[in-house]
Amino acid sequence: EPEVTQTPSHQVTQMGQEVILRCVPISNHLYFYWYRQILGQKVEFLVSFYNNEISEKSEIFDDQFSVERPDGSNFTLKIRSTKLEDSAMYFCASTGDTYQPQHFGDGTRLSIL
Amino acid sequence: DAKTTQPPSMDCAEGRAANLPCNHSTISGNEYVYWYRQIHSQGPQYIIHGLKNNETNEMASLIITEDRKSSTLILPHATLRDTAVYYCIVRGTQGGSEKLVFGKGTKLTVNP
Q1: Band of the pLDDT at B102, cuts 50, 70, 90?
Q2: Looking at the complex, does the CB of residue B67 fall below 8 Å from at least one CB of chain A?
Q3: Distance (Å, rounded) from C-alpha A66 to C-alpha A47?
Q4: Which of the 8 DSSP states describes residue A101?
Q5: What distances in angstroms separate CA A58 from CA A88, B17, B34, B98, B100, one per listed residue?
């Protein structure tokens, strides 16, 4: 069964550094999402992306965050100048259409030191 | 905030049916009910979704009340591997926001 894959599984970065989290969505999907989950808290929506544009973003997704689909298979989340509070699990999700369920990857654990 | 209310925890004996309730009294006509689960710190796993008819797939059954204000996810023969946090999410599919709004879910523990 096709699945969403995320790399790396764990990323450790010094505060203030830039980090790029990578996702390979399911191949025929067109809608892409990032969510995050701080340890012990709820899964939170960050951003949705379709047709090379952000279609929706949350208040969390401020100017330090950006997303990109650099080629036909990857979908990335970049965090510039990371902060301690960016430490969380980051989940990528994709779907073929908005009436279909979103399918999630297993996440990247981001630890900011 | 999540538009659903779920009990924080439930227990179930292995091999028995697990019935997980969800209240969504403010659901609107074009909103679906989705169920996901999260095992430990893995990514949320899609289980099932429905609009107003009952649905069944290889993982579970979804029973939606006639007034659509509540639903029940049924795992017919729970196994230890079904221990997870189960999330009931209401979301529209035509226009509007695509985001999934997760609440705290129900932590289901399947006991041997």
Answers
A1: very high
A2: no
A3: 9
A4: P
A5: 16, 38, 21, 12, 12
Q: What is the pLDDT of residue B93?
A: 66
Interface residue of B3, B33, B47, B100 to substitute, partner A, most A CBs within 10 Å: B100
CA nearest B91 in A: which residue?
A: A99
What mean pLDDT value characterizes chain A?
95
What CA–CA distances, in Å, run from B42 to A19, A40, B1, B106?
21, 13, 22, 16
What is the distance, to the nearest Å, from the Cα of residue B50 to the centroid of all Cα atoms in its chain?
10
B19–chain A nearest CA distance, Å: 22
Answer yes or no: are the C-beta atoms of B3 and B101 closer than 8 Å.
Answer: yes
One-letter amino acid identity for B77? H
Residues in chain A closer than 8 A to B99 (CB atoms): 33, 45, 48, 56, 58
